[in-house]
């Protein structure tokens, strides 16, 4: 079979052609090259021509080798492999580079060998969607028929409420309630099929949607004993900030949420690989952590240690000290430089929805345990106490540390954990590397880039023009940027997951951008180049900026100022990448010509998140994959001109009065955006955008709104395939008459977006609810969903699974897809046994 390799007409980059030509030219003897360079250099020019043909041959050979393996095959070669194994064609998901289809094609033969089994159905659904999938055969949950003559002994007809897990799993993939016979269908997508409890002939495919990304813990040195970890090894572990009770920071109280007095929902990392071909369990799924399972496991670990016996736990536990899952706590006491890794048996799982009473109360430093051992005449009662290092609430991300007698108090807490969102947006541990972002820092012959590395645990000095200057705080780096950065590119690499407050003499953190310059504030790893034995060194290479597993928090208002210098020069460019701002961002007069907010979380709850405090001329503001509070650029008192471009982001009012997106003097472009609040704009071009409230556009002669939800009462430029206008037009055409007011209202309500959460601190912020109508879920361009998570293409992914189910189901069975993603309100109720 012939495999297509490269796309016809594809051009090779000039850099690759030059590299091949230089490599060929370097094969000539040195004296020949010297003579050629001393003359006209015609021989080198000839090798430049030969290099293009050689590069094309090399590229064709590389593509051929790639086409032999499903993991590396291009789109055309993947189609050929799919045809070879007769894999059905799936609807492509925009922007996913064929990841779901690639996994499905690779595993097609294995699927066919196990057709008809629940294990293969859930594996197929997980590969196609990229989500955690659990297949449930509902006949296994049947306790008996209605006459109760054949009750199954393993599923008694009354629910067991003692363990406290029954209510938390109702309706989900691990529902423990026994059932009687029901004949209603599971597939709710077909007309005429009522919703209800599922018949024994049904199979449910339960999916969990949030994307879970974690900050990894450093590898444990030992398993049996807690390890002491140097502070330098915890650069990628987030710092917990003080948890304030009634506005007062209390000793021993900490929280993982970076916004004051807010909760952070912890998630279990994706551990499906640990299942090793077996059926998935609750501990394998990337879903919200609940208190009860973790409490039962930590209690059993303490009991086993005191009783000197092996713990009575399943083979796959919640706590894995090897990987640090689901979270690992590190404590540092006052006066110490290193952290102590807390073993799971020293963690007490508690409910910290509200501060303990009385105010300032702290948990006991130890807990007692009583057990019985066999005796000669009667069981012998035994008791013991086990130390407790901290009390943790995985539902709120809050920690309270006991006050240990005779020891210094704990002053710093770091927790390696996982969080979630509808897609990789906002500040977090996700991979943010991209071809258009600086990665390898080189000296190119012009003005050298300036590099500062913010890391208080490293004492190396150096120069910002050489390998990179290490400074203890962001404020120190910004002071040097203001002095040295004119006309150059300055990179401030925030190498630790730290939190920075205001300098002692200021209530703000000032970012001074010199004219005609670039300033990049990037939460990333800084890796100096390494020399491998026998390999040539690159003298121009200074280091690498690796944008993952880092998040830096600025806990004060950030002001952007114009630097001193040529008053006629164009203002500079500021890039914020991977930062979380808790008190907002302020732009002063002519501060920047370009502002890029990339993978950031910018909030100031109850206030404006991004605001212009001075006039801006021809300024371009780019917001990409961000969670942002109210954006208000310009008003009647401040003259602003330019453009605002927002992509793959959520913009929310965040409790502030007024509009969520207020740019009356800017030309606004929105793509894959959810705006949770009103909008007021100069001009608008929008695609796949959900406006939760009305939008008012001043200049409606230009621009267009496409494949979006526009609420009634909005004033926008011309629209194309927008809801609910599209549904109203279809209803009028079907009725062949104008709709009454009641009919129009009913159609509008039936085509409105329904969100799981609208609070900015929740992980399911702006995610569409399972009850959201298909007109919004599949109404975007290319049949994706409208809003910020269009690239997730959940509707397309589930349609692909639904199209494959008939091939893999046993005869006479019917399958349906059930979304187990829950809002924070529902999850909170299920956390109360």
Q: How would the blueprint of this fold be written?
A:
Blueprint: H1 14-25, H2 30-38, H3 42-67, H4 75-84, H5 99-106, H6 108-113, H7 118-129, E1 132-137, E2 142-144, E3 179-180, E4 202-208, E5 211-214, E6 228-230, E7 241-245, E8 248-255, H8 291-307, E9 328-333, E10 338-341, E11 347-349, E12 366-373, E13 380-387, E14 390-393, E15 398-400, E16 410-416, E17 418-421, E18 440-442, E19 450-454, E20 469-471, H9 474-484, E21 489-494, E22 499-500, E23 509-513, E24 518-523, E25 525-527, E26 541-546, E27 552-554, E28 558-562, E29 572-577, E30 579-581, E31 585-587, E32 592-598, E33 601-602, E34 610-612, E35 616-624, E36 627-628, E37 631-632, E38 640-652, E39 661-676, E40 679-691, E41 695-697, E42 704-706, E43 719-720, H10 725-735, H11 741-750, H12 774-777, H13 794-808, E44 814-819, H14 824-830
Parallel strand pairs: 2-3, 4-44, 11-14, 19-20, 19-21, 21-24, 22-27, 23-28, 24-29, 27-30, 28-31, 29-32, 30-33, 31-34, 32-35, 33-36, 34-37, 35-38, 36-38, 37-39, 38-39, 39-40, 40-41, 40-42, 42-43
Antiparallel strand pairs: 1-4, 5-17, 6-10, 7-8, 8-15, 9-10, 9-16, 12-13, 14-15, 18-26, 25-26
Helix pairs in contact: 1-3, 5-7, 7-13
Protein name: Baseplate protein J-like domain-containing protein
Region (Disordered): 428-447
Quick structural overview:
It contains 14 helices and 44 strands. By secondary structure, the chain is an alpha/beta fold.
Describe the structure.
By secondary structure, this protein is an alpha/beta fold. The protein has 4 domains: 14-84, no CATH class; 99-210 and 795-830, no CATH class; 212-419, no CATH class; 440-702. Helices cover 19% and strands 27% of the residues. The strands form 8 sheets. It has a 23-stranded parallel beta sheet that branches. It has a 5-stranded mixed beta sheet with strand order 7-8-15-14-11. A 4-stranded antiparallel beta sheet has the order 6-10-9-16, with no helix packed on it. A hairpin with a 2-residue loop joins strand 7 (241-245) and strand 8. Helix 7 runs antiparallel to helix 13. The protein starts with 13 loop residues before the first helix and ends with a helix.
């Amino acid at each position: 079979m012939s495999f297509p390799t490269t796309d016809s007409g594809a051009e090779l980059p000039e850099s690759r052609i030059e590299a091949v030509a230089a490599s060929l030219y370097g094969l000539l003897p040195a004296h020949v090259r010297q003579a050629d360079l001393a003359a006209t250099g015609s021989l080198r020019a000839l090798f430049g021509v030969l290099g293009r043909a050689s590069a094309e041959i090399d590229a064709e050979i590389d593509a051929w080798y790639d086409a032999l393996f499903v993991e590396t095959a291009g789109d055309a070669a993947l189609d050929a492999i799919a045809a070879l194994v007769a894999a059905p064609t799936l609807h492509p998901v925009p922007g996913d580079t064929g990841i779901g289809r690639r996994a499905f094609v690779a595993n097609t033969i294995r699927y066919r060998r196990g057709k008809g089994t629940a294990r293969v159905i859930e594996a197929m659904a997980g590969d196609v969607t990229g989500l955690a999938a659990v297949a449930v055969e509902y006949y296994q949950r049947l306790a008996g028929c209605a006459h109760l003559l054949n009750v199954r002994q393993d599923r008694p007809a009354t629910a067991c409420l003692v363990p406290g897990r029954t209510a938390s799993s109702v309706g989900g993939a691990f529902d423990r309630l026994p059932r009687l016979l029901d004949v209603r269908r599971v597939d709710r997508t077909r007309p005429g099929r009522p919703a209800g409890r599922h018949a024994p002939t049904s199979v449910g495919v339960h999916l969990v949607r949030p994307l879970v990304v974690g900050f990894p813990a450093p590898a444990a040195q030992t398993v049996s004993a807690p390890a002491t970890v140097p502070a330098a090894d915890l650069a990628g572990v987030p710092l917990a900030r003080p948890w304030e009770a009634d506005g007062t920071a209390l000793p021993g109280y900490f929280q993982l949420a970076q916004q004051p007095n807010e909760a952070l929902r912890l998630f279990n990392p994706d551990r499906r690989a640990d299942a090793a071909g077996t059926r998935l369990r609750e501990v394998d799924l990337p879903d919200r952590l609940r208190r009860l399972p973790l409490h039962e496991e930590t209690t059993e670990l303490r009991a086993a240690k005191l009783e000197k016996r092996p713990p009575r736990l399943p083979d796959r536990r919640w706590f894995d000290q090897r990987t640090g899952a689901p979270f690992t706590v590190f404590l540092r006491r006052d006066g110490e430089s290193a952290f102590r890794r807390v073993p799971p048996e020293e963690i007490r799982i508690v409910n910290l929805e509200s501060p303990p009473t009385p105010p300032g109360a702290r948990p006991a430093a130890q807990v007692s345990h009583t057990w019985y051992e066999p005796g000669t005449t009667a069981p012998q009662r035994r008791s013991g106490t086990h130390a407790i290092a901290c009390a943790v609430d995985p539902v709120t991300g809050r920690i309270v540390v006991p006050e240990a007698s005779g020891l210094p108090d704990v002053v710093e807490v770091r927790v390696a954990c996982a969080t979630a969102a509808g897609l990789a947006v906002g500040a977090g541990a996700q991979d943010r590397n991209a071809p258009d972002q600086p990665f390898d820092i080189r000296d190119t012959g012009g003005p050298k880039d300036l590099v500062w590395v913010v890391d208080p645990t490293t004492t190396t000095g150096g120069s910002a023009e050489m390998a990179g200057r290490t400074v203890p705080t962001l404020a120190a780096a910004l002071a040097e940027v203001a002095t040295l950065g004119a006309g150059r590119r300055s990179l401030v690499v925030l190498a630790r997951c730290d939190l920075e407050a205001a300098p002692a003499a200021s209530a703000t953190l000032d970012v001074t951008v010199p004219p005609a310059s670039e300033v990049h504030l990037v939460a990333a790893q800084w890796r100096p180049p390494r020399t491998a034995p026998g390999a040539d060194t690159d003298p121009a290479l200074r280091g690498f900026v690796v944008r993952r597993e880092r998040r830096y928090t600025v806990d004060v208002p950030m002001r952007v100022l114009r630097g001193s210098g040529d008053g006629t020069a164009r203002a500079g460019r500021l890039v914020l990448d991977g930062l979380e701002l808790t008190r907002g961002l302020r732009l002063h007069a002519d501060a920047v010509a370009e502002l890029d907010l990339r993978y950031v979380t910018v909030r100031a709850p109850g206030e404006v998140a991004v605001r212009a405090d001075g006039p801006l001329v021809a300024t371009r503001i780019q917001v990409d994959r961000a969670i942002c509070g109210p954006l208000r650029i310009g008003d009647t008192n401040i003259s602003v001109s330019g453009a605002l471009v927002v992509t793959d982001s959520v913009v929310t009012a965040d409790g502030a009065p007024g509009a969520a997106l207020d740019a009356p003097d800017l030309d606004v472009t929105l793509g894959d955006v959810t705006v949770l609040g009103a909008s007021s704009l100069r001009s608008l071009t929008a695609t796949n955008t959900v406006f939760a409230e009305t939008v008012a556009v001043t200049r409606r002669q230009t621009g267009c709104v496409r494949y979006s939800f526009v609420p009634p009462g909005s004033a926008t430029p011309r629209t194309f395939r927008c809801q609910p206008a599209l549904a109203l037009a279809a209803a009028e055409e079907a009725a062949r008459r104008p709709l009454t007011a009641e009919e129009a209202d009913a159609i509008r309500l039936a085509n409105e977006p329904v969100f799981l959460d609208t609070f900015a601190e929740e992980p399911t912020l702006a995610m569409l609810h399972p009850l959201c109508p298909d007109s919004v879920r599949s109404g975007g361009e290319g049949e994706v969903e409208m809003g910020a998570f269009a690239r997730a293409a959940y509707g397309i992914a589930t349609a692909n699974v639904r199209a494959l189910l008939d091939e893999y189901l046993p005869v006479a069975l019917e399958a349906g897809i059930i979304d187990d993603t829950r809002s924070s309100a529902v999850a909170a109720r299920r956390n109360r046994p």
